[in-house]
Design a protein that fits this description.
alpha/beta, Rossmann fold, Alpha-Beta Plaits, 5-stranded parallel beta sheet, 5-stranded mixed beta sheet, 24 helices
Length: 533
């Protein structure tokens, strides 16, 4: 129902207006009455009024003056003016000021009904536009917040805060990222049956409730990547940085506890540093992202504060950077002594860090990332046939001895070297090396002996001969093996049909592709996709 206020200095007319029609039949309800314009202005402050029916001539504040005051207040309330025959010039002035309509006394009930129908249509249209505007404003505001978190348009921040009513103040700021950890049911299954969406909403509600109950002050909550939420908290200039950090950590501990106990859900929380100025919001966000990476070292279902990690990194020791570079170069070319070099580096770093397991874990997590990034830089196409991110996700949770760290490192790096060797990327013969790289770079194409021999400017016979001699396998077998590994990734990561994967890999016959796939994996593509071996 749209709310109505009737304004007239004669009680009998106010009473007659209420009874002349059934207002509710047209979607309206009379919620209050005013004796004149002055009285009406006071009631407007107390009630949300959609439609006002006002006499033009009244004591104190007239209907025209009331309309003018309403417009100066910035309200777009619809106003219907009641006018006598001798007040037509006043009615015209009212229309000029933006009155919705006017009606002559004595009031014709049918005319009033028609006016109400038009008013209802206008109010409905206005509500829809307002709703759309507010939704767009929220979406735009969220996009601006994301941009600010990424360090974009910082010079425009003051203007954005005003224009989009962003929940930001020019005070201290700190950012955290809350991530829903892997749970018993896989994310793929959750997505299929909408459980993930429900869990996501519940975690959002949990975080918001905990923040609202706290004395943290100004905060914002944003959805980020799949299963991640960004919390921005702020405080005025009087509070100390250390106090803001302490209060925020207490709030996040509550989020973690309630998530575990009520939602039976594990959460990983990365916390960025607190900064004095809102303009450093992006720094705190980057800190939080960095802190979250250390879940692979420190474990899951916990709060990881970047400031605590910084204390570890400030330890003064001369890091053997040249030995790390030599190790990375050895791994890239698949040298057999790479693992012994890794053991040597581990022992040297462990000694420098006084065998502090926590600090060793953090240091070697970074080393493994460096190895991964350098291998990808050299062989970016490898990710088309193998999920190299598995190498990075070592996970030192529960590791208590140097021997345990060594075993985990050796196992993962040995797998990486094995992949490089498997795809013959460590060949000393330049032609064979280039042939292997060509296959992996053109894995989604129809690779033939003719096309690759032409690209290398050699004959097909020579390519077959030297490839077999150097790698011990037939060139076409190598190309097929690479394509089948690529097919496994396409079937696992994406929702492709079997015939679509066949087309993507350059096979004209799906049946032929399926036959090769089963020969390589022991499963048909459909079986593999169903079971995700």
């Amino acid at each position: 129902m749209y709310s109505v206020m009737i304004v007239d200095d004669e009680p009998i007319i106010r009473k007659g207006l209420k009874k002349i029609i059934n207002w509710e039949d047209y979607g309206f309800k009379v919620v209050c009455e005013a004796r004149d314009g002055e009285d009406a202005l006071e009631l407007i402050k107390e009630h949300s009024i959609d439609f006002i029916v006002s006499d033009i001539k009244m004591h104190k504040v007239t209907g025209i003056e009331l309309l003018r005051e309403i417009r100066e207040m910035g309200l777009d309330t619809l106003v219907l003016l009641l006018s006598g025959y001798d007040e037509f010039s006043y009615a015209q002035e009212g229309i000029r000021l933006g009155a919705f309509d006017y009606i002559l006394k004595p009031i014709d009930s049918q005319k009033l009904k028609n006016i109400l129908i038009n008013a209802s249509n206008k109010l409905t249209t206005k509500q829809e536009k307002d709703r759309e505007y507010n939704v767009n404003k929220v979406i735009s505001g969220e996009k601006i917040l994301y941009d600010l978190l990424r360090g974009k348009n910082l010079m425009m921040m003051d203007e954005y805060i005003s224009q989009y009513n962003l929940p930001l103040i020019k005070g201290k700021v700190q950012v955290a990222i809350v991530e829903i950890n892997e749970i018993i049911i896989s994310s793929e299954d959750l997505t299929k049956n909408d459980e993930w969406s429900h869990l996501n909403d519940m975690v959002n509600e949990l975080i918001r409730k905990v923040l609202e109950k706290s004395d943290i002050g100004c905060f914002s909550l944003l959805d980020s990547d799949f299963g991640r939420k960004i919390i921005i908290v702020q405080a005025d200039k009087e509070i100390e940085i250390s106090d803001l950090n302490k209060s925020f950590i207490n709030v996040l501990n509550s989020v973690l506890k309630v998530g575990n106990e009520e939602l039976k859900t594990k959460l990983n929380i990365g916390v960025g540093s607190a900064y004095n100025q809102i303009y450093s919001i992006y720094k705190s966000y980057l800190n939080a992202k960095e802190a979250l990476k250390y879940k692979y070292v420190l474990g899951t279902n916990m709060i990881i504060n970047v400031s605590e990690l910084a204390e570890c990194r400030q330890e003064r020791f001369v890091y053997p950077i040249e030995k790390e570079k030599s190790l990375i170069n050895a791994i890239i070319v698949g040298k057999d002594d790479s693992l012994s070099m890794l053991k040597e580096l581990l022992k040297e770093v462990a000694t420098m860090l006084n065998f502090d397991i926590f600090k060793i874990n953090i240091t070697f997590t970074q080393i493994v990332y460096n190895i991964y990034n350098n291998v990808l830089k050299k062989y970016s196409f490898l990710e088309d046939v193998y999920d190299l991110s598995k190498i990075v996700k070592i996970g030192f949770l529960g590791v208590e001895t140097l021997e345990d760290i060594e075993n985990k490192l050796i196992d993962n790096i040995a797998k990486l070297i094995e992949i490089i060797k498997e795809y013959s990327l460590n060949q000393s013969d330049n032609i064979v090396q280039r042939a292997c790289e060509y296959v992996l770079n053109h894995i989604d194409e129809d690779i033939t002996l003719t096309s690759i021999a032409s690209n290398l400017n050699i004959s097909k016979n020579y390519l077959c001969s030297i490839f077999k001699q150097q790698t011990g396998e037939n060139f076409l077998e190598y190309a097929t093996k690479a394509k089948m590994e690529r097919a496994k990734i396409l079937l696992k990561r994406y929702d492709y049909k079997v015939y679509e994967v066949s087309d993507l890999l350059g096979y004209k016959e799906t049946s032929y592709f399926s036959k090769l796939f089963k020969k390589h994996t022991g499963y048909t593509p459909a079986e593999y996709k169903k079971n995700i071996i």
